[in-house]
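Now read this:
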Amino acid sequence: MKPIAATTKQGPGARLSRLFGQWGVFFRGFVEHPRMVGSIIPSSRFTVRKMLAPVKWEECKLFVEYGPGVGTFCWPVLEKLRPDGALIVIDTNPLYIDYLNRTITDSRFIAVHGSAVDVEAIVRDRGHDHADYVLSGLPFSTLPDGVGPAIAKATHDVLRPGGAFLVYQFSAKARDFMAKHFSKIDQGFELWNILPCQLFWGWKG
């Protein structure tokens, strides 16, 4: 049977509790580390749907996410991910890692407290040679100097040929870093998000 992303509570009341709990945790993370969190609230379902649309799930054995926050993308990814696949999420904020480990019990899910710059070592240490897709909502325009370019390079290196770097941002800064490594970058826009955001898909040749 396919593993299911689960929480410790069930039912409508529990779902409301989880929703408000998510917002509280997300907001606290933003207040404590505003330069490392892209938004004051999680992404909309429209952004999630559009961002993940190009993913060929039948070919995806390893999906990686930078800056998962409270798991806005984690549940949709796990719902579509193949039974033998894996989702590794990486965040520098231990608050988010702790929250995700307490609320997601899917056996395919791994939450790592660390930096996206170290994605190659993180992927290798978990028994994988490469990633098929890497998703990022990190705010490239406010990251410390040198971190954005380092993440873009490390992401390109960890992806398999034909894989993609999926990025959603409020500014186009991420595209500048991506363009140095990805020759093909598709671009989109999602109005129904707070704030409206730009979407990028960088494909590794």
